Amino acid sequence: MKLYGQSYIAGNWQNNQQGDTFNSFCPGTNEYLPAMFFEATEAQVRRATASADRAFKSYRRISNRQRAQFLSTIADEVTVLGDALIETTMLETNLPRQRLEGERARTIGQLRAFAEVLEQELTPLNLNCVDEGDETRLPIAKPHTALTHIPIGVVAVFGASNFPYAFSTLGGDTAAALAAGCPVIVKAHPAHPATNELMTKAIDKAIKQCGIPDGVFSMLQGSQHPLSHQLVKDPVVKAVGFTGSLAAATALLKTINDRKEPIPLYGELGSVNPQIVLTGQDAHQQSILATQLVNSLVMGHGQFCTSPGIWFVPEEDIDFERAAINAVEVAHSDTLLTTGILQTYKKRTDMLRQHPNIALVAQGTLSKQYHAAVQLYTCSADDFVQHKLLQEEIFGPCAIVVKYRDEEALVHAVEALDGQLTASVYGSADKLHEQAEIIESLSYKVGRLIFNQAPTGVEVCMSMNHGGPFPSSTDVKSTSVGTRAILRFLRPLCIQGGI
Ligand code: NAP
C-alpha cells in the first residue's frame, strides 16, 4: 500500500519534502524499514490547532446521531483496510497476527459501543438531572436548574507503542473525544508510523463521507519531543489523553503546569499489578496457578500495562515456585516493541541482578541478542517493603515472586504498594472472607480488583474501570476503557431559569 509519510492536517496530507525524517523500524529483524516519515513542523502543529479550534464551533453542534454515524463509518473503514493493516502492524511491532486481529476487533467494537451510546442520546450514562423550581419556597424562591454536559474542547492524544490500535491513533481516547464532540489532534507514536497513517486514512474517508468539518481530526507524525510539548502548550488544547510511561507523562505534565490555563492530562500509565496468592492452596493448585501466571506474564512478552509483575506467595508454597521456575525455563525469547524498551528492560533487569536483596531464580532461552529473555526473581516480603526499586514497573517479561512468612508480612507489603491499575487475589471463598482486611486495603490501591483470575485482558464495557491511583494513572476518577471514558471529554454545565 502506498504511504504518504506525511502528517495529516484538517483533511490534507502535508507536503513537507524538506523537513527532518525518520524511518519505521522492524523489531522482528532489528532493522529499519524503507518507509520514511517526515517530522511534523512547528508550523504544522499551529495549523492543526487552529483548524481544530475552527472545527470545534461546528462539530459541537452536530447531533448525537450524526456523530454516531461518523464513528460507525470510521469502524467500517477500518474493516475495509483489511489484511494490509494487520501486515503493516506486524512488521512495525512484531506482534503476532492473532493478537492484532483481536485488538482490531476490540478497536472497532469500541467505536461501535460509543456510537450506540450516542444513538441513545447518552442516556445509558445517566449524566443529566433536573431540580424543579419552587416560587413559593421560603425564605427565598428555589430556581429551576438543569444539569447538562458539553464537550470540553480540542483534545490532544498520545498513544502507546504496545497497543497500536486500541491505545493509539484510533484508540479509546480518540473515540471517546470524537464521541463527546471534541476535535482531536493525535501525536502519533513513532514506533508504528505506517499503522498510524493507515488508521488516519480510515478516519479521512469517514470525515469525507459524513460531511464532518475537516479540522475535527489531525495526525502529527514525529519522533521528537519538542513537537509534543508545543502541542500541549497550545492554548487551544483543553485536555490531553495520554497512554504510555510515567516518565513521558511527567515530562508533559511539567509543560502543562507552565500554562496560564491549567488543563487535565488523563495519563494511563504503568503498573506492577500485584498477584496475591493466599495460603491454603494444595500442591496441585499451586502448580496450576504458577503456570497460569507465567502464561499471563509471557502474553505480549510482558508488554501489557496489566502484566503481572509482582507475585506475593506464602513462603511454604514450594510447589508454586518449582512450577513457576519450570515454566519460565522453557519460555521462548522474543523481541520487544522498540529498541528503547529493550534497552530499558536490560538496564532494569541488570539492576535487579546486582541487587543484594533479590535473586534471579529462572531465565528463559535467549535465541537472539536483540531479544529479551523471560526472567523470574524472588525476594522476601520484608525486602520488598524496604527497597523501592523492587516495587517499580519493569516493562517486559520479568516478574518477582515475593515470599511472605505470615499474614502480618503480607499486610505490610500490601500497604507499601503504590497505586495500581489492577490486583488479583487467589484463594478459596473461605480464605477470601478470612482476608477481608487485606482485600479492603488492596481496594484502595487499585482501579480494578480481580478474584481468582489473571489481570491481562481488559473487557470493553460500561462497568469497566481502566485507571487507578497514581502512579498507575494521573486521574483516579477516570477510566480510559469502556463507554464511560466519554466523561473525561465532557464538562458539566448547569442551566438555571429558562430562555
Ligand atoms: P512512552 O515511551 O511513554 O511513549 C508514549 C508517548 O509519549 C509517545 O508518543 C512518545 O513519543 C511520547 N514521549 C515519550 N517521552 C516523552 C517526553 N519526554 N516528552 C514528550 N513526549 C514523550 O510509552 P511506550 O513505551 O509507548 O509504552 C509503554 C508504557 O505505556 C508502559 O509503561 C506501559 O505500562 C504503559 N501503558 C499503559 C497503558 C494503560 O492503559 N495504563 C496501556 C498501554 C501502555 P516518542 O516515542 O517520540 O518519545
TrEMBL record:
<dbReference type="Pfam" id="PF00171">
    <property type="entry name" value="Aldedh"/>
</dbReference>
<feature type="domain" description="Aldehyde dehydrogenase">
    <location>
        <begin position="13"/>
        <end position="478"/>
    </location>
</feature>
<dbReference type="GO" id="GO:0016620">
    <property type="term" value="F:oxidoreductase activity, acting on the aldehyde or oxo group of donors, NAD or NADP as acceptor"/>
</dbReference>
<dbReference type="InterPro" id="IPR050740">
    <property type="entry name" value="Aldehyde_DH_Superfamily"/>
</dbReference>
<protein>
    <submittedName>
        <fullName>Aldehyde dehydrogenase</fullName>
    </submittedName>
</protein>
<dbReference type="InterPro" id="IPR016162">
    <property type="entry name" value="Ald_DH_N"/>
</dbReference>
<keyword id="KW-0560">Oxidoreductase</keyword>
<dbReference type="InterPro" id="IPR016161">
    <property type="entry name" value="Ald_DH/histidinol_DH"/>
</dbReference>
<dbReference type="InterPro" id="IPR016163">
    <property type="entry name" value="Ald_DH_C"/>
</dbReference>
<dbReference type="InterPro" id="IPR015590">
    <property type="entry name" value="Aldehyde_DH_dom"/>
</dbReference>
<dbReference type="InterPro" id="IPR044151">
    <property type="entry name" value="ALDH_KGSADH"/>
</dbReference>
